[in-house]
Automatic annotation (TrEMBL):
InterPro entries (UniProt xref): FAD/NAD-bd_sf (IPR036188), HdrA-like (IPR039650)
Presence of the UniProt keyword Ubl conjugation in the record: no
PANTHER family associated with the record: COB--COM HETERODISULFIDE REDUCTASE IRON-SULFUR SUBUNIT A, FERREDOXIN:COB-COM HETERODISULFIDE REDUCTASE SUBUNIT A
Protein name (database record): FAD-dependent oxidoreductase
Signal peptide: none
Lineage: Bacteria, Bacillati, Bacillota, Bacilli, Bacillales
Amino acid sequence: MQSKQYSFTRQVETHAHADVIVIGGGPAGTAAAIAAARSGKQVVLLEKSAQLGGMGTLANVSIFMPVGNVTGIYREIVAEMLAEYLPADHDQSIAPQYSPFLFRQYFNEKMKKENVQVFFHSEFVGAVREDRRIKAVVVSTREGLRAFEGDAFIDCTGDARVAIDAGVPYHAGREGDGLTQPMTLMFTMQDTGKPVVPILPEGCYEYNDVADLPQGRRLYWEQNGDGTLLVNMSRVKANGAKIEDVNYAETEALRQVFSIANYLQRTGFETYAIAHIAPQTGVRESNQIEGLYTLTEQDVVSGRRFADVVAQTNYEIDIHSPDAQKTTDEREVDGYDIPYRCMVPAAFDNLLVAGRSISATHVAMSSMRVQATCYALGQAAGAAAAIALDDGSAAKDVSMPKLHAILERQGVRFRVVTG
Ligand SMILES: Cc1cc2nc3c(=O)[nH]c(=O)nc-3n(C[C@H](O)[C@H](O)[C@H](O)COP(=O)(O)OP(=O)(O)OC[C@H]3O[C@@H](n4cnc5c(N)ncnc54)[C@H](O)[C@@H]3O)c2cc1C
């Protein structure tokens, strides 16, 4: 069938106005909202689901990968929730496993304390643009479409949904074929202390060998010593920002989850039962904006430093096969800077994009995508948006000395400060 196009015009009532509107409440969005609020701004955080934490809670990621710089709001979160893991120095690595349920509760209380107004079940639909500025975002709420007006906007949807809708150029996936890293449905199993009968529901697969498994490996963590097994073993070839891919992923990943659990129950975890399956299949990679600077593989492997550094990491290059082959490209890196310009779309004065959808190549994003780095980027975006409002400057002209000073006041420490 040939696709038709409709034009859709509607008068939309304004529900709220804020200095800074953050869209998406994952690691980047929560940190952006906190940082802007700490700079004295009125902040609204719009989240399409019922919880904060993004992939970290919604997709049950439940573990922080080591980034070699435990700093800023991320450090504070570790101190408040996982104090036993807090390193004495910021430049040590930690990889704590956590409860996504406790984090969900924690974020609700934290946002209240930080004076961030959170709207759940509020999904961004469209951006209202005037010249180089976003004036408002239209949001699907439980009461229908509503507008949220703001002076600055920070897109933390992970998919660059706001930026793309506003017309910011973007790319997705590998250069050449556009394939993104695959999706994974995370789940946990719990030691029941007695043998369980393995079940294999209709439609599932019988895996008998490690080689049969979707990733060709066993990948799980049981580091909390409480009998919880966190399993990251499904793998579905899909781009989590595409309609048909997501339909496929949500059914195929669930099949794999039951099949993997059945395999584990026959191969070492005979007393473990499925305890929880994430509400949604996790998205590692979808869209990247094209910003004022694009972080490259060369920057990552050469340990490049930038005068406008806003986040630092030494997390490895970590590419789960975009073809859904049973391979993962893992390469250690020594550490590098991510510059502010990766979050700035050239055509807008009051829009920043933080988190995994910053301007980066496929290989570079595979390293910068982990949670701690997204918290750092979000924090910088929130502080930068506040400076832009105070100074009446465009996002691209935010003063770096000022940004670095505010980040320092907010507890951020860099290993190497350039410039
Ligand atoms: C399976 C898997 C395993 C991973 N393993 C690890 C790991 O072990 N350790 C680690 O540190 N990292 C890991 N990661 C990576 C990490 O979880 C993500 O890259 C990180 O959460 C990205 O943060 P973000 O804030 O950019 O985006 P996200 O976490 O994706 O958050 C985006 C938020 O925006 C919301 N949103 C999206 N669209 C809209 C809209 N239209 N309107 C309103 N809200 C919207 C979403 O609901 C979500 O809450 C993993 C990721 C996956 C998928």
